[in-house]
Each structure stands twice: as structure tokens, then as C-alpha cells.
Design brief:
By secondary structure, the chain is of the alpha/beta class. It contains 11 helices and 12 strands. Strands 7-6-5-8-9-12-11 form a 7-stranded mixed sheet. Strands 1-2-3-4-10 form a 5-stranded antiparallel sheet, with no helix packed on it. Bound molecules: zinc ion (ZN).
Length: 296
């Protein structure tokens, strides 16, 4: 008999990937100590709504503590590239919601997106549980950033026109509850915009258990179809999907080769540095990432 799905309640869960153990050679090859790519617990899939998730009992509170130790030099090295990716998001939002208004960015990290959104005419605020990141945001970007968890007590109900979550929803233990929270915060006609990784993408299926996004901090994975089902259940009226292009430096792209071969990644990284092209920013079509825009 199959196990009960903790999202839809049906006995429809089976193991998709067994845990990758640190001691095994294969797992070590496919993980890097700094980012933990490919290091994960048991990954299961629900055959009813096709939710893919890490089947471990762990509280959101405990997960949140992971974020308090985030000191991520790569994050800052990628800031110029991220600026361009955020520019893409803002151009898309200007098409989808031209009148602009109040915007909440959930999991804003250091707050760069909030800063750029304000510059683009939005009344934007950020929410970030990481204390260090929140302090950085206030000091460097002069923005309002709420240092609280994402529940229904952080702001009044229906106080935003747009809620954004860029590469964040997969970090939540219960993304369905978070979708409900977003719905709660949106005004009628408001838009929930997010990007996330797709466990049924060609790249994910090809990589199998070594897909880099199966990592300790990622708890649940929504395929576009799964996301649409749960968004409509929460009350969203219209859901659209867009392919995702992001900007990355050649230096960062080299680190992604880590999932294939660490020596190769180090070699290409050095080569790019010698050629002084490591800081060149290129657009990159991420086959395993999608953007979703849901209308309340
Ligand atoms: Zn289910």
C-alpha cells in the first residue's frame, strides 16, 4: 500500500529517489560542500497531483534556522547578473499589471528586487526571515524589509496588488499553505508572480537523483500542472506560465558544471578567469525553471 500524501491526503505516494548519502562516492561527486547540490533526503511523488517532495518530518521553524547562517559570497558575485534577471521580471510585470501599485516580495534576501521595483514605480516592500540579509537590505538599499516569517500576521489582509516569490516557493515545507497566504494578501484582481524549478522538466528527468535542485534547502517541487491545480483550488481565476531566461556570469555557469564533474568545473572556472571573461554576463534559458503568473 502506498503512503498518504501530506498535501492531497490520498494514499498515492511512492519513492522517486532514495536519499543520496554523503559517504557514497557517487554522491560526493555530485555535491559541493558550499552549495549541497544533489544532496537530498528521500524524494517522493504523489501520483494524484504529482507533487514531488522531500518526505521528512521537519518543522518550518527548523528549516528557517538554515537561513540564519547564510553567508553566500557567490550571491554577491552574481549581483550584476541578478540585476538583469530582475529587470526581466519587472518588464514582464509591467506588461501583466501596467497600473502598478503595492508589491510584496517574499524571500527577498538582500532586497535588490525591492529596490529595483521601487525604482520602476512600485510601492514595494520585502519580507525576509534572514536577519543578516534584512540588515544588509536596510543599510544598502534603503528599503522597507520586514524581518518576519511568511504567515498571515505580517501585514493586513488584501493589502497588495502583486506578490512575488522568485526562486522561493521550493524552500517552503508546505507550498500549498503559502499559496493560501499569498491569496490572503492579494487584492481582488491582484497577481501572484513566481519562478520555481520543475521536477518534470527534461533537465530534471535527465539528471535524475543528481538534479542539482534536489538539495537540503529545497523541500517541495511543483510541476506547472501541479501548481495550476493548487492555485485554482486556492481561488486563483487565471494562471499563465512563461519560459524562464536568466542572466548569469560565465564564472557562475562554470560552477554549475560541478554537477557533472568537479575537476571540469574548476578547470573551466580557471580558464574563464585567465581569459578575463568570467564576469561576462550571458542570457541563459533555464529549461528546468518556469515563471508563473496567477490572477486573483
Ligand atoms: Zn498528493
Amino acid at each position: 500500500m502506498k503512503e498518504k500524501c501530506r498535501f492531497c491526503g490520498r494514499e498515492s505516494v511512492s519513492v522517486l529517489y532514495h536519499p543520496t548519502k554523503a559517504g557514497e562516492k557517487q554522491a560526493a561527486e555530485f555535491s559541493c560542500t558550499n552549495c549541497g547540490f544533489g544532496k537530498h533526503g528521500v524524494i517522493v511523488r504523489c501520483s494524484n497531483r504529482r507533487m514531488v517532495y522531500v518526505n521528512e518530518k521537519i518543522s518550518q521553524k527548523r528549516i528557517s534556522t538554515y537561513y540564519e547562517v547564510a553567508d553566500d559570497p557567490l550571491y554577491f558575485a552574481e549581483q550584476p547578473a541578478r540585476r538583469r534577471t530582475f529587470g526581466r521580471y519587472l518588464r514582464r510585470l509591467a506588461e501583466i499589471y501596467p497600473e502598478r501599485g503595492k508589491l510584496l516580495d517574499v524571500g527577498t534576501n538582500t532586497g535588490l528586487f525591492v529596490r529595483l521595483a521601487i525604482d520602476a514605480g512600485w510601492g514595494a516592500v520585502g519580507l525576509e526571515p534572514n536577519r543578516w540579509a534584512a540588515e544588509y537590505a536596510k543599510k544598502n538599499y534603503d528599503i522597507t524589509l520586514v524581518n518576519k516569517p511568511f504567515d498571515r500576521k505580517a501585514f493586513p489582509k488584501a493589502s497588495f496588488n502583486v506578490v512575488t516569490m522568485w526562486d522561493v516557493i521550493e524552500h517552503f515545507n508546505d507550498p500549498i499553505a503559502e499559496i493560501g497566504n499569498v491569496f490572503w494578501y492579494l487584492r481582488p484582481g491582484g497577481v501572484f508572480a513566481f519562478s520555481t524549478v520543475d521536477p518534470e522538466s527534461v533537465l530534471a528527468r535527465f539528471s535524475g537523483t543528481h538534479w542539482p535542485w534536489y538539495m537540503e534547502m529545497h523541500r517541495a517541487f511543483l510541476t506547472p500542472a501541479t501548481a495550476e491545480k493548487y492555485l485554482r483550488t486556492a481561488g486563483f481565476k487565471k494562471v499563465i506560465f512563461k519560459p524562464h531566461f536568466r542572466n548569469l556570469s560565465l564564472g557562475y555557469l562554470a560552477t554549475r558544471l560541478m554537477a557533472i564533474n568537479p575537476e571540469l568545473a574548476a578547470f573551466v572556472g580557471r580558464l574563464f578567469k585567465i581569459l578575463s571573461i568570467d564576469k561576462i554576463i550571458v542570457p541563459y534559458y533555464a529549461n528546468d525553471v518556469y515563471e508563473c503568473y496567477a490572477y486573483k
